[in-house]
C-alpha cells in the first residue's frame, strides 16, 4: 500500500508512516521508502528518520548508458 501518496492531505497516513518506521527500527530493521516524488515527501521521511529514500524526486529512470554518463559527470 502506498501511504506516501496521501500523506499531505491525510494526517492519519502520516501517523501510520511514522509508526511503521518506528516499529521497524524497534525490531532492528532499516526502512526503505520508494516512490518519493516531491520535496515535501522527502523532507517528511527524512524528519521521520527513514533510513533510505528513493524515487523520481532524485532521478527519473534512465538507461545504463545515461546512468554511466551521469556518474562520470559527477566525478
UniProtKB/TrEMBL annotation:
Concerning SUPFAM superfamilies, the annotation shows:
EAL domain-like
The name this protein goes by in its record = EAL domain-containing protein
An example molecular function term from Gene Ontology annotations: cyclic-guanylate-specific phosphodiesterase activity
Q: Which residues form the EAL domain?
A: 1-75
Record-linked CDD domains: EAL (cd01948)
Amino acid at each position: 500500500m502506498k501511504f506516501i501518496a496521501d500523506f499531505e492531505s491525510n494526517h492519519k497516513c502520516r501517523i501510520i508512516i511514522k509508526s511503521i518506521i518506528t516499529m521497524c527500527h524497534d525490531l532492528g530493521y532499516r526502512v526503505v521508502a520508494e516512490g518519493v516524488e516531491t520535496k515535501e515527501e522527502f523532507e517528511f521521511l527524512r524528519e521521520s528518520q527513514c533510513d533510505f529514500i528513493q524515487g523520481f524526486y532524485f532521478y527519473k529512470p534512465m538507461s545504463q548508458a545515461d546512468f554511466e554518463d551521469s556518474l562520470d559527470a559527477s566525478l
